TrEMBL record:
<keyword id="KW-0285">Flavoprotein</keyword>
<dbReference type="InterPro" id="IPR006258">
    <property type="entry name" value="Lipoamide_DH"/>
</dbReference>
<dbReference type="InterPro" id="IPR004099">
    <property type="entry name" value="Pyr_nucl-diS_OxRdtase_dimer"/>
</dbReference>
<dbReference type="GO" id="GO:0006103">
    <property type="term" value="P:2-oxoglutarate metabolic process"/>
</dbReference>
<feature type="domain" description="FAD/NAD(P)-binding">
    <location>
        <begin position="2"/>
        <end position="232"/>
    </location>
</feature>
<dbReference type="InterPro" id="IPR036188">
    <property type="entry name" value="FAD/NAD-bd_sf"/>
</dbReference>
<keyword id="KW-0274">FAD</keyword>
<keyword id="KW-0520">NAD</keyword>
<keyword id="KW-0560">Oxidoreductase</keyword>
<dbReference type="GO" id="GO:0004148">
    <property type="term" value="F:dihydrolipoyl dehydrogenase (NADH) activity"/>
</dbReference>
<protein>
    <submittedName>
        <fullName>Dihydrolipoyl dehydrogenase 3</fullName>
        <ecNumber>1.8.1.4</ecNumber>
    </submittedName>
</protein>
<dbReference type="InterPro" id="IPR016156">
    <property type="entry name" value="FAD/NAD-linked_Rdtase_dimer_sf"/>
</dbReference>
<dbReference type="GO" id="GO:0050660">
    <property type="term" value="F:flavin adenine dinucleotide binding"/>
</dbReference>
<comment type="similarity">
    <text>Belongs to the class-I pyridine nucleotide-disulfide oxidoreductase family.</text>
</comment>
<feature type="domain" description="Pyridine nucleotide-disulphide oxidoreductase dimerisation">
    <location>
        <begin position="252"/>
        <end position="361"/>
    </location>
</feature>
<dbReference type="InterPro" id="IPR050151">
    <property type="entry name" value="Class-I_Pyr_Nuc-Dis_Oxidored"/>
</dbReference>
<dbReference type="Pfam" id="PF07992">
    <property type="entry name" value="Pyr_redox_2"/>
</dbReference>
């Protein structure tokens, strides 16, 4: 992957300067190289895209050995016999499944009531069932109160509705969110305003300091690679004077690469209820899908949330085999203002996994005939 990026840089005549950068003033950056030499780089516009790093609990700092981050989890020196994963968002759930598939005994611990808590509740419930079926121990509504690393492994102190208990494991993966990399960049000296650990920007991604912009994980938008990419394109085009369309943050797809996979866009049913919107739900299970049956992967479903008055697709929530490949069509449909009836009236190929989207739309209208 990194070599591919290097090739693209070279192809597009982008100069890469290795080192630690600090903004001295608008248009001026000091770079400290690996051998300790300093150089000055000047540019009319500066874009901050320094990303984020793994967060950790105050009493369980990441040491790279007993308590690790997702980066350490990608390149382990050896597989542990037992692992606890704290936090069940996309990163935590993905690594919980990955390590379990490698034969590790995994316990997934979530402070909130559901795993993958940003997803629709029914999606969370299905993934929890699938994980338990795969042999992953799932603990929700559970708080980690202490981590003892004085022995060979780690002993976690846990508090839940059932009471207090301890859990002994070899390694703990801390997956409790990320922190933006905004320290030591010279932001304060340049008057760049930050808020709650993120850089404040305007509609053009410009910070409070003229000529300095920010995109990606350092700003208060979804911390996803495809979001950062869209922001970068929009930011650069606007710097170049192009009237670029703004990023539609209400139509951002999210994918979780577990087995089964999760793919979602738009509002959850919980959020729709909270807003008091009159809505309909259409669901189609993969147990009724010929393609899923033939593939031997029938876990999951497609769930569409439809505005009862306008027929607008308020949200789409998918869980099952390869559903991350099925979501883009719904994102495009929402972007074009397509209605649920438009999906029903579009002939879908059979047998495919994606025809479940049409079936779910039909179910919302009481027109489904295959379940």
């Amino acid at each position: 992957m990194s070599r591919g990026i290097e090739y693209l840089f070279k192809k597009n005549k982008i100069e890469v300067i290795a080192g630690i950068a600090k903004i001295l003033a608008p248009g001026k950056i000091e770079v400290l190289s690996e051998n300790g030499e300093k150089s000055l780089v000047e540019a009319s516009n500066i874009i901050i895209a320094t990303g984020a790093r793994a967060n950790s609990l105050p009493f369980a700092p990441i040491d790279g050995e007993k308590i690790i981050s997702y980066r350490h989890a990608l390149v382990p020196e050896k597989l542990p016999a037992k692992m606890a994963v704290i936090g069940s968002g996309a990163i935590g759930s993905e690594f919980a499944f990955f390590y379990k598939s490698m034969g590790v005994e995994v316990t997934l611990i979530e402070y909130l009531d559901n795993i993958v808590p940003l997803e629709d509740d029914e999606i969370s419930a299905q993934l929890s069932r699938s994980f338990r079926k795969a042999g992953i121990k799932v603990m929700v509504s559970t708080q980690v109160t202490a981590a003892d690393t004085s022995g060979e492994g780690v002993v976690l102190s846990l508090k839940s509705k059932k009471g207090e208990e301890t859990l002994a494991v070899d390694v703990v993966l801390s997956a409790v969110g990320v922190i933006a990399n905004i320290e030591n960049l010279g932001l304060e000296e340049c008057g760049v305003i930050t808020e709650r650990g993120k850089i404040k920007i305007d509609e053009n991604y410009q910070t409070s300091c003229k000529g300095i912009y920010a995109i990606g994980d350092v700003i208060a938008t979804p911390a996803l690679a495809h979001v950062a990419s869209a922001e970068g394109i929009c930011c650069v085009e606007r710097i170049a004077g192009i009237d670029a369309k703004p990023v539609n943050y209400l139509n951002i797809p999210a994918c979780t690469y577990t087995t089964p996979e999760i793919a979602s866009v738009g509002m959850t049913e919980r959020a729709v209820k909270e807003k008091g919107i009159n809505y309909k739900v259409g669901k189609f299970p993969f147990t009724a899908s010929g393609k899923a049956t033939a593939a031997g992967d029938r876990d999951g479903f497609v769930k569409l949330i439809i505005d009862a008055q306008t027929d607008e697709i308020l949200g789409a929530h998918l869980i099952g085999g390869n559903v991350t490949e099925m979501l883009s069509g719904i994102v495009v449909a929402r972007n074009l203002g397509a209605k649920a009836k438009d999906i029903i009236n579009s002939v879908h190929p059979h047998p495919t996994m994606s025809e479940a989207i049409m079936e779910a739309a039909a179910a919302a209208h009481g027109e489904v005939i295959h379940i």
